[in-house]
From TrEMBL:
Coiled coil feature spans: 209-236, 335-362
InterPro entries: DNA_recomb/repair_RecN, P-loop_NTPase, RecF/RecN/SMC_N
Superkingdom per UniProt: Bacteria
Domain RecF/RecN/SMC N-terminal, chain residue ranges per copy: 3-508
Annotated source species: Billgrantia ethanolica
Function: May be involved in recombinational repair of damaged DNA.
UniProt entry keywords in alphabetical sequence: ATP-binding, Coiled coil, DNA damage, DNA repair, Nucleotide-binding
Protein name in UniProt: DNA repair protein RecN
Source species taxonomy: Bacteria, Pseudomonadati, Pseudomonadota, Gammaproteobacteria, Oceanospirillales
Protein encoded by which gene: recN
Family, per entry: Belongs to the RecN family.
Length: 558
C-alpha cells in the first residue's frame, strides 16, 4: 500500500510530506482548495503524462515521490526482480522541469515513464470521478467482467495468439499475391550469392592483399636500397665500419684512453660499431629474404581488381563485401526456408486459428459463468444503496466477427423500476441513479481486485442523504480489506473514514499555497461541521458533526 507521498514545488504546493496508513482515508477541502493536486501528484508517480504546468510558478522543477509497502504484493516484487531492481522496497520518483521535460526513477535507478505506468498497475487502482461516464462504454463492461472473472492473463494470451494469427495471415496473403516478385528476388539473390561465394573474400583478406601488393610492387626498389645501405655501412673504401675502426685506432694509443673522457668515448664508439655490424647482418638477411615475384604480383593485383569490381557493382565499399555476402545469404535462406513456404504458412495459419478459437471458447465460457455472479453482486450493492427494486443484468452476446479479446460483447443492463425491461446504462435518465449504479459496480470490481490500494475520486457525486452514509459504509468496508483513499464533498462519507486528510488553500502576499494535514479528532469535528453548515460554525452544527462522527465510528466497530 501507499505509505508516503512527498511533493516539492508542484502546482500550488511548495513542500508536503504525507505519511499514509491502511484503512479508509477521506480527503476533503473547499472547492478549489486543491484536492485534485494530491491525486495528480500520485498520478505522475504512476506514469501519467506531465507538462510544464505541473511546476509551481517561479520554480525550476517539481519533485514528486511515492513509497509503497509491497510485502503483500508478489506481482510487484516479481516485476522488480525481473528487472534486477531491489524488491524489499518500492520508491517511485518523478521530476518535471519548467520546460516540461521529465525524468523518472524506481528504487533510485533511472526508469522510463512506461516503466512507472507498468509497475503502477500492480500498486494502485484509481476510480475517477468520471468513472460513471466510462461505464457508458461497452468496452469498459468487457474489461470489468474479465477482471471479475480473473480472465486478465487468459485474455492477454488470447490477444497475443490473435495478433500472431493475423500477422501470419497477412504474410501468407502477401506471398500469395506477390509470388512472381518473390521468385524474381530469389533468382537475383541466388546469382549474387553465387558470385560472392566464388569471390570468397575473407573478413581481413582485403587488408592483407593491399599490404602484399604494396610490398611486391616495391620489391625491386626495396632490394636495391637495402643492398646500398649495407654497402654504406660495410665498405673497405670509406664505409661506416671502416671509419669507426679508424677513429678507434687513432684514439686508443692516446694518454688517458684507459680512463676519463677518452675511455667513455672509446666505449661509445665500440657500442656503435657493434650496432652497425648487427644492422649490416640484418640488412643482408632482409635482402636475401626479399623476392622478386612478378607472377604473384600479377595475381594479387588481379584479385584486388575483382574485389573492387564487385564492390562497385553492389555500390558498397570493398571492405563491406563480407558483411553484404552474409546479409544476402541470410535473405536467400529466408526466402527458400520453411517460413516462406506457402504450404507451411497455410498450415501455421490454420493452427493459430484453431488455437485462438479454443482459447476464445474457454474465455467465453468463463465470461458466461461470471456474468450471473457479477450481476448478483452488483444487485446486492444496489439494494444497499436504496435501489433494491432495480434489476441489474450482464448480457454476454456473440460478436459478428472475431476480435483480439474474443467472440463476445458485454453490456451492462439496468431496469430501475419494476415492470420495465432492462436497458443499457446509457439509457438511464437519472444522474443520481447512474452515480449509484456506477458506485455499486466499482465496489464489486474493487473487491475482486488483487491491488490493495484503491483511490476513489468523488465517486459519490450526485448522492446525498441516507444514501451518502451507506456509500461511506461501503468504502469503509473496502478500506478494512486494504487501503482506500476517497476525495469527497459529503460529510456522511468523510465521517466513516479511519483517517481524515484536510486540504486548504492559503494566500500569502502575491502567492497562493496549498496545505494538507491529517486531522485529529477535534479537527475532524470542525471539518465535518464546515461540510455540514458552511463558513459560520454554530454550536448546533458542531454538535451535529460530533454526533455524526461518534455514530459512524461506533457503528463501524460493531
Amino acid at each position: 500500500m501507499l505509505t508516503q507521498l512527498a511533493i516539492r514545488d508542484y502546482a500550488i504546493v511548495d513542500t508536503l510530506d504525507l505519511e499514509l496508513a491502511g484503512g479508509m482515508t477521506a480527503i476533503t477541502g473547499e472547492t478549489g482548495a486543491g484536492k485534485s493536486i494530491l491525486l495528480g501528484a500520485l498520478g505522475l508517480c504512476l506514469g501519467e503524462r506531465s507538462d510544464a504546468a505541473s511546476v509551481r510558478h517561479g520554480c525550476e522543477r517539481a519533485d514528486l515521490s511515492a513509497r509503497f509497502d509491497i510485502a503483500a504484493l508478489p506481482a510487484a516484487r516479481t516485476w522488480l526482480t525481473e528487472r534486477e531492481l531491489p524488491d524489499d522496497d518500492c520508491l517511485l520518483r518523478r521530476v518535471v522541469t519548467a520546460s516540461g521535460r521529465s525524468k523518472a526513477w524506481i528504487n533510485g535507478q533511472p526508469a522510463t515513464v512506461a516503466d512507472l505506468k507498468a509497475l503502477g498497475e500492480h500498486l494502485v487502482e484509481i476510480h475517477g470521478q468520471h468513472a460513471h461516464q466510462l461505464l457508458l462504454r461497452e468496452e469498459t463492461h468487457l474489461r470489468l467482467l474479465d477482471d471479475f472473472a480473473g480472465n486478465r492473463a487468459a485474455v492477454n494470451e488470447l490477444s497475443e495468439t490473435f495478433r500472431r494469427w493475423q500477422a501470419t495471415r497477412k504474410r501468407l496473403k502477401q506471398l500469395t499475391e506477390s509470388g512472381d516478385e518473390v521468385q524474381a528476388r530469389r533468382q537475383l539473390l541466388r546469382y549474387q550469392v553465387e558470385e560472392l561465394d566464388l569471390l570468397a573474400l575473407g573478413d581481413e583478406e582485403l587488408t592483407t592483399l593491399e599490404h602484399e601488393q604494396e610490398q611486391l610492387a616495391h620489391a625491386e626498389e626495396t632490394l636495391r636500397e637495402a643492398q646500398h645501405a649495407a654497402e654504406c655501412c660495410d665498405n673497405d673504401e670509406g664505409g661506416v665500419l671502416t671509419l669507426l675502426n679508424q677513429a678507434m685506432h687513432r684514439l686508443d694509443p692516446l694518454p688517458g684512453s684507459d680512463r676519463g673522457a677518452l675511455a667513455e668515448i672509446l666505449a661509445m664508439l665500440g657500442e656503435a660499431r657493434i650496432q652497425v655490424e648487427e644492422a649490416v647482418r640484418e640488412l643482408h638477411r632482409f635482402a636475401d629474404a626479399t623476392e622478386l615475384d612478378p607472377e604473384r604480383l600479377a595475381w594479387v593485383e588481379s584479385r584486388l581488381g575483382e574485389v573492387h569490381r564487385i564492390a562497385r557493382k553492389h555500390h558498397v565499399m570493398p571492405e563491406e563485401l563480407p558483411s553484404l555476402h552474409r546479409r544476402l545469404q541470410a535473405e536467400l535462406e529466408g526466402l527458400e526456408g520453411g517460413e516462406h513456404d506457402l504450404e507451411a504458412l497455410r498450415a501455421e495459419v490454420e493452427n493459430l486459428r484453431d488455437r485462438w478459437r479454443e482459447q476464445a471458447r474457454r474465455v467465453g465460457d468463463s465470461r458466461q459463468q461470471a456474468a450471473a455472479r457479477f450481476g448478483k453482486a452488483v444487485q446486492e450493492q444496489l439494494a444497499f444503496l436504496a435501489m433494491g427494486k432495480a434489476r441489474f443484468e450482464v448480457e454476454v452476446a456473440p460478436r459478428q466477427s472475431p476480435l483480439a479479446d474474443g467472440m463476445e460483447e458485454v453490456r451492462f443492463l439496468i431496469s430501475a423500476n419494476p415492470g420495465q425491461p432492462p436497458r443499457p446504462l446509457a439509457k438511464v435518465a437519472s444522474g443520481g441513479e447512474l452515480s449509484r449504479i456506477s458506485l455499486a459496480i466499482q465496489v464489486v470490481a474493487a473487491r475482486h481486485s488483487t491491488i490493495p490500494s484503491l483511490v476513489f475520486d468523488e465517486v459519490d457525486v450526485g448522492i446525498s442523504g441516507a444514501t451518502a452514509e451507506i456509500v461511506g459504509q461501503l468504502l469503509r468496508r473496502l478500506g478494512e480489506q486494504g487501503q482506500v483513499m476517497t476525495v469527497t464533498h459529503l460529510p456522511q462519507v468523510a465521517a466513516q473514514a479511519h483517517h481524515h486528510l484536510h486540504i486548504e488553500k492559503q494566500a500569502k502576499r502575491d502567492t497562493t499555497l496549498t496545505r494538507m494535514a491529517l486531522l485529529d479528532e477535534a479537527g475532524r469535528v470542525s471539518e465535518l461541521a464546515r461540510m455540514l453548515g458552511g463558513v459560520n460554525l454554530s454550536d448546533r452544527t458542531l454538535a451535529h458533526a460530533r454526533e455524526m462522527l461518534d455514530a459512524s465510528q461506533q457503528g463501524a466497530s460493531h
